[in-house]
């Protein structure tokens, strides 16, 4: 059974009204795994998790807010996947999972990327290290804060070298960049828009979940 995964840049979780809106949406979507970026929170405890996703079967791991970097929480339904190991990096939260239905072993990473090119190199190195550490089928999801192609942005100055480095990282890790559905962008502000969010999967993960 394919897990239903939702990823979302929430731009802050401190307001109770926003958490309630997210909770109502997650209930309607009937999700199995949730990845939220830009939480802007230093502590995510059980009270916060229950305000987002109720139920005794929910577990979580998070990267705390540290100024303008980090800020990722990954939550999952333990009836669907069992966490084997976890990793909390500078820009990444990752878990190795075992699917409860068929014991399939795979890894998931949630990413909130940096805005500076020098720091992006650290993200690519972090993902490469994770890919080697867990020799498993991968699903990587998040807000990478960089586009891959000039056609994916309008009205900003995101540099071409960063795009090339991002594409090389995807190629080196042998990942599949899933196409975007529902529109060409994932972020917009006045006259500026970009595609900053992506699902990257390994061919082995896609083979196991062919209807992704």
Q: Could you explain how this protein is built, in words?
A:
By secondary structure, the protein is an alpha+beta fold. It has one domain: Endonuclease/exonuclease/phosphatase (Deoxyribonuclease I, Chain A), CATH 3.60.10.10. It is built from 5 helices and 13 strands. It has a 6-stranded mixed sheet. Strands 1-2-4-3 form a 4-stranded mixed sheet, with no helix packed on it. Strands 9-12-11 form a 3-stranded antiparallel sheet, with no helix packed on it. A hairpin with a 2-residue loop joins strand 3 and strand 4. The relative contact order is 0.13. The model has no long low-confidence stretch (mean pLDDT 89). It comes from Carya illinoinensis (Pecan). GO terms for molecular function: DNA-(apurinic or apyrimidinic site) endonuclease activity; double-stranded DNA 3'-5' DNA exonuclease activity; metal ion binding; phosphoric diester hydrolase activity. Mg(2+) binds at residues 9, 38.
